[in-house]
């Protein structure tokens, strides 16, 4: 598996994870699939996250993470190895970690795993889907040495 993880910082890198951390979390979330490709992670402020949330989800305010799976247009006759983009709002991550009494790094790891699972087609709109996705998140995070992110919620 060869996954390139591109990081874009729209905010200062203060308290943001290292490139190596992002890479490790993305690879773990790929569930040992033989996927090759690229994931772009953009670390934003609340204004950008709120604008994207409004434009693409029609919801007001910044959210912690947005996932945009890449879909190959039908007119393209070959495979393009892009998995998609994750938009992570650094101030929301920091605030949620504090509110939930979690280490900020643990929350970043959880959100990256969560977002990559969305890029792979997992969802949590229905209760059964949510249970399956959360169980996968817990398993992946435990394999990385993190505790269950849903225990303290």
Structural write-up:
Its cofactor is Zn(2+). One of its GO terms (molecular function) is metalloendopeptidase activity. Single strand-specific metallo-endoribonuclease involved in late-stage 70S ribosome quality control and in maturation of the 3' terminus of the 16S rRNA. InterPro entries: MetalPrtase_cat_dom_sf_prd, YbeY, YbeY_CS. Belongs to the endoribonuclease YbeY family. The chain is an alpha/beta fold and 153 residues long. It has one domain: Collagenase (Catalytic Domain), CATH 3.40.390.30. The protein contains five helices and four strands, in the order E-H-E-H-E-E-H-H-H. It has helices at residues 19-29, 46-57, 90-99, 104-119, 127-143; strands spanning 3-9, 37-44, 65-69, 82-89. The chain has a four-stranded mixed β-sheet with strand order 1-2-4-3. Helix 1 (19-29) crosses helix 4 and helix 4 crosses helix 5 (127-143). The protein is globular, with a radius of gyration of 15 Å. The termini are far apart. The relative contact order is 0.17. The model has no long low-confidence stretch (mean pLDDT 90).
Q: What's this, in brief?
A:
The protein has 153 residues and is α/β, with parallel strands linked by helices. It contains five helices and four strands, in the order βαβαββααα. α1 (19-29) packs across α4 (104-119) and α3 (90-99) crosses α4.
Structural key phrases:
153 residues; four-stranded mixed beta sheet; alpha/beta; 43% helix
* Distance linking N and C termini: 34 Å
In CATH terms, what is the fold-level topology?
Answer: Collagenase (Catalytic Domain)
What is the count of β-strands? Answer: 4
Count of DSSP helices?
5
Could you name the CATH homologous superfamily? Metalloproteases ("zincins"), catalytic domain
What's the CATH class label? Alpha Beta
Note the overall shape: globular
The helix-strand sequence is EHEHEEHHH
Average pLDDT, all residues: 90
In the sheet with the most strands, the strands line up as 1-2-4-3
Rg = 15 Å
Structural class: alpha/beta
* Biggest beta-sheet profile: 4 strands, mixed
Number of domains in the coordinates? 1
Assigned CATH architecture:
3-Layer(aba) Sandwich
Helix content: 40-55%
Beta percentage is 15-25%
């Amino acid at each position: 598996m060869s996954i390139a993880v591109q990081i874009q910082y729209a905010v200062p890198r203060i308290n943001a994870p290292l490139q190596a951390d992002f890479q490790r979390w993305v690879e773990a979330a790929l569930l040992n699939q033989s996927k090759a490709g690229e994931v772009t992670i953009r670390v934003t402020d609340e204004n950008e996250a709120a604008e994207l949330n409004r434009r693409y989800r029609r919801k007001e305010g910044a959210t912690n993470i947005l996932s945009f799976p890449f879909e190959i247009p039908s007119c393209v006759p070959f495979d393009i190895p892009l998995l998609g983009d994750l938009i992570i709002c650094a101030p929301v991550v920091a605030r949620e970690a504090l509110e939930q009494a979690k280490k900020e790094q643990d929350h970043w790891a959880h959100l990256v795993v969560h977002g990559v699972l969305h890029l792979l087609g997992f969802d949590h709109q229905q209760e059964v889907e949510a249970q399956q996705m959360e169980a996968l998140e817990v398993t992946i995070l435990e394999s990385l040495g993190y505790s269950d992110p849903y225990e303290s919620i």
